[in-house]
Amino acid sequence: MLSTVELETMVGRLAHLDSDIDDTQRITQLGLLERLKGAAAAAQARVSVDFEASQRREQAAAGLPADQQGRGVADQIALARHDSKVKGSRHLGLAKALVKEMPHTMAALTSGAISEWRATIVVRETAVLSAADRRQVDARLVAEMPHLGDAQLARRARAIGYQLDAESVLRRVRGAIRDRRVRIRPAPDTMALVTGFLPVAQGVAVHAALTAAAASAKALGDERSKGQIMAHTFVQRLTGQTTADAVPFEVQLVMTDRTLEGDDTPAQIPGFGPVPAAFARDLVTGRAGGHSADPDQARLAEVARVWVRRLFTSPADGTLVAMDSRRRSFDGLLRRFLVARDQVCRTRWCDAPICHTDHVRASAEGGETMADNGQGLCARCNYAKELPGWRCEVVTGQGRHRVRTTTPTGHSYESTAPPVLVLGGLAPPGRYSSGDHDLLDTQGMPGMPGSPGLPGIPGGADEGALVTAFEALIRAA
What we know:
Elements: H1 4-13, H2 23-61, H3 73-80, H4 85-101, H5 103-111, H6 116-125, H7 131-141, H8 150-164, H9 168-178, E1 181-187, E2 191-197, H10 200-219, H11 226-239, E3 249-255, H12 257-261, E4 267-269, E5 273-275, H13 277-285, H14 295-302, E6 306-313, E7 320-323, H15 333-342, E8 356-359, E9 374-377, H16 379-384, E10 391-395, E11 402-406, E12 412-416, E13 421-422, E14 425-426, H17 463-476
């Protein structure tokens, strides 16, 4: 048996593989390491299943209702594997399928004959089958599994499943329809990709409608390209606006005073990413956006209700120091500050969008409703921290805002709020393990009480003076 101490020693020894060898041995090493990865994945699966069973027993002994037993298990697995909670659930689901229902696939993974991804393919393609049919697919694939590529393995597993259960085709289609969704992702050059995952008939209908609208506009003499017309029509029909350029929106734009004055340091739009300095200046001064060939549409775009909420950063390190608080269209300015500060879910390795802003130390335990005691979390991470045995606390005196989360097994994980901007570039959204500057501590920061001041802003100026100074810079731009 391999103990935990021996396992840790083995991990350390992998950094010191013999390099004084010929290329034949190097290729042999690569093959052995690939087998080792498969064997390690199989071991993780067995450990995960054992951990879930142990946690369920503990929760049952503690009097937790049967329908709540097992909650938080996948969350702890995710943290241990440096992954998001959603992937933690996938890891646990894969482990249970391999250990309990697919012995041949599990054996191939344990020996390193297949990779974890190939095992995932077999489990994925048999997910709609009964446990008995899944075992048959597992048994019939055992001989050929190590010799098939990803696509071949998926097709073979699916074909055997169809032979055993023809209705599985319909169940797969119904499952895909339930998963329909719309996503947005940043694209280069201040653009975005909006993707709809739809049933094929609906997807074709959407594209046909946009194509017909473009053809009609071109027939009337519209000089824009077909793609431009389709894109504008897409926005107009979804938002209800008379022109795509006139869509009301609010942007949280993060930039330094130097960028506003003409510096090339990129700005940041939380939830989107970096944008060029010139584009940021145009956005602040109202010159950004598409330009319509129709003068009437251009005038409509000019009067569109565009709000820019300015998030002011320290020129020294890019940390968030103030926020324009004059707009009252939405309540919860503190929540907006936390979302801008944390950018994505604060749990380590979870990049999900922020859904909840909550107390680090619960209000029932005396935690104050203030930025220092707040954090932005996705819904799942927020619910997980409320489970028995979970604890969260603010780590003080460690630079930027830091939160320590401790799980029921006593393992602790710290996350640090990222700098919104960093000197000489942009900090990508994510979790940081260390830092020198607190995003919330305004003492000693330029333009805040007790500080030397931003360029053109007297030291010790309050937020009102900071906003006034930035408005002057905006007008000058």
